[in-house]
TrEMBL record:
UniProt KW Transcription regulation keyword: yes
Pfam families the record matches: DUF6597 (PF20240), HTH_18 (PF12833)
Domain HTH araC/xylS-type: start-end pairs: 170-272
Native species: Nocardia mangyaensis
Protein name: AraC family transcriptional regulator
Cross-referenced InterPro entries: AraC_XylS_family_regulators (IPR050204), DUF6597 (IPR046532), Homeodomain-like_sf (IPR009057), HTH_AraC (IPR018060), HTH_AraC-typ_CS (IPR018062)
Top-level taxon of the source organism: Bacteria
Keywords for this protein: DNA-binding, Transcription, Transcription regulation
Gene Ontology MF terms: DNA-binding transcription factor activity; sequence-specific DNA binding
Length: 274
């Protein structure tokens, strides 16, 4: 069993755009991972919606640099899927009713566990059995089970039966991504290479192999997630100070990048998120 302290924080909505608005259209629950995936995944997540008789809703996410394995039932698609790192804003139209039971792998975790070419999945998804043929029938069993806890047991049992060896390169990638996420002073790739004493080309190869996107993109994505989260919760100072806090050259650079990724200005985003 996973210790209570390892349970995912239900209030952590970083990466979810307009979190208050989304909460009015769907439910979100998270479950901790078990021993089989503890080293490689962050948590299980469950999204359900029932919009019958209501207009469809566009749910938007600024995704983490992670692979998500999903078991889905909706008017869009049904089955098991492996979803690669999404380098643009992810948009999913929710209509009628549906659900997704997912596992968010840690950055680099899916590639380390399965040996899959994560870069080939960037901005794309593939049927689960295309990458993991041994998972034939797993999606049907998971979706037939009404209990989320039982679904988690089914998935954990599948992965517990797979061989995997210790991969020191994955441990290094995980440490680097963790530092990028947690240390606001890391804003440039050269700072990362200096801290971890690693050549830039080696860093780029490791990120391509395990994360599926380059280190510069990962740094930028974490900064934009922080910006959107602070704006949505009213925790941001004026934009010039926010830009400086996040390591941008100036406010104009920050605003251009925010608009390019999220589709509206920081001021408009903050207003809509109230």
């Amino acid at each position: 069993m996973v210790a209570p302290d390892d349970s995912p924080d239900p209030g952590d909505v970083k990466g979810i755009l307009h979190p208050g608005e989304q909460a009015r259209h769907r439910t979100l629950n998270r479950l901790p991972v078990g021993p089989a995936l503890a080293e490689f995944a962050d948590w299980y997540w469950v999204v359900r919606w029932d919009l019958r008789g209501r207009s469809a809703y566009r749910a938007e996410v600024l995704s983490f640099p992670c692979v998500n394995l999903t078991f889905e039932r909706s008017t869009l698609r049904t089955g098991g899927f492996v979803n690669g790192v999404c380098t643009t804003k992810y948009v999913r139209e929710l209509s009628d009713e549906g659900e997704t039971f997912g596992i968010r792998f840690s950055p680099g975790g899916f590639g380390a566990f399965t040996g899959a070419d994560v870069a080939a999945l960037r901005d794309d998804s593939a049927p689960l059995t295309q990458l993991l043929p041994a998972a034939a029938g797993l999606a049907e069993r998971v979706l037939a089970e009404p209990s989320d806890d039982r679904r988690r047991v089914l998935v954990e049992s599948f992965f517990a039966g797979r061989d995997r060896g210790h991969d020191p390169r994955y441990a290094l990638v995980a440490a680097i991504v963790r530092a990028m996420s947690e240390d606001a002073n890391l804003t440039r790739v050269d700072q990362v290479t200096d801290r971890f004493a690693i050549p830039i080309r080696t860093l780029q190869r490791l990120f391509r192999r395990y994360v599926g996107a380059g280190p510069k993109w990962v740094l930028c994505r974490f900064r934009l997630q922080d910006a959107a989260d602070r704006l949505a919760h009213g925790d941001a100072p004026d934009l010039a100070v926010l830009a400086a806090d996040l390591g941008y050259f100036d406010q104009a650079h920050f605003c251009r990048e925010f608009v390019a990724e999220i589709g509206m200005s920081p001021t408009e985003y903050a207003r809509r998120s109230r």
